[in-house]
Request: fold
Amino acid sequence: MKIEGRAPKKRFSPWLLLLTALLLVSSGALVYNLLRDTINTIQTVPAMPGSGTEGFSVTVAALREEIPLKLPEGYTLLVKDGERLAKNAAWAAKFQTKDAQKAYGTLQEKRALRERLRNLQSSALVGLSEAKLEAELSGLFLKFLDSTADGTLDALPAAADVLSEKWSVLEVVHAEKKDYIGDKIRSLDKEIAALEKKTATAKRLTTTAAGYYSAANAPGVGTALADKILRITQSTQGAQSPTLTVAEVTQLLRSKPAASAGFTGNLVTGFNWVIVANIPAKNALLLRLGHAVQAVHERAGGGAFKLTVEYMGREEDGEVPVVFSCADQGAWKLHGDSLRIVLREEEGLRLPRGALHIVEGEPGFFVKTGGRVVFRRAIVRCTEGDVVIVRALSNAELTQKTSVALREEELDAAAKKAGKSRPKSLQRYDAVIVNGRDLEKKINN
Reply:
């Protein structure tokens, strides 16, 4: 017989309740730790003082006054790269025989030796005391030995140079006493006269101006366009200057050294460089004729240059052809490269550009302070690549309220109650956040 009745009530085990409570506590602790770690793992950089430049980058062409030299068939080059030449100096010659050609090389060596001896003979070194020189030489030699013994090998090359120089001076003094130098010069005079007679029949090519020989085949040298640009910088005030177009500058920028038959090199007659570029019209408006600007070669280790604005052409399609002059001899490496024209230099707080944010119309930075994230306003002074230069806001500027500033006021009130003060502007050494997402939502308010 089946007996019906009520089912017994289910009872919760105290162990189950305890386990549930522990899970809730653990979950809460996990969430807390995750949020805490999110704050603690944020990367920051201190807002440090620094400087930057405001400017723009352009591709430039570089020219200077050069006369192209072509070596005719059968002629021999008589000069070396970088050698200075006077006007009407021979730079190439055609010799009747190989012996005459060889004699000319010997003639140049003898002339150089005679010149060095004449300089030694007439120098004030000859009148020095022989005993004093020997004493100095002895002391230098001992110092040289000491450097070798104690292992200071870095000083050896310089010590060897000084030792060699003093030894040469002593030899001159000894030689002058017995007129060795005078005898040698007189002997060289006879040798040089014989060699000159042997090479007298050679046909020579001479320079039309003073300068120095360059073996480099530079772009545009000797072309009508290059001559036109050079005339622009040579025009005196009030004189009619040639005009330059954007298309002509583009043509020059694309030019490469001409592989002309018989090219030997150039006679460099002008020591100042001419830098040419097409500059965006908005940037060209910031340049002034006759004024100098600083420029930086953007290639690694390129260096800085001082440029003077010589010419500004007519705007075409948003660009203006501009011609600069530059006295720096290192400007040869600028052709075809990017040059940053510096308009002004600013000082302030130097920070990564990526850390700059706009919050409700206000530029500034997220700053980590303790376990909180706050927003600090700043005024941007200039940007340079991945860097931004900013300055702090003044008290007057801070009175221009924004919703961000109002949230900051609440934090100020709390800080004041705690006996502290909090700036509303970015300040030196603030820990500026350089990573993280949704930072605006993390602002404490």
Observations:
- The chain has three domains: 44-48+348-442, 61-67+213-336, 96-201.
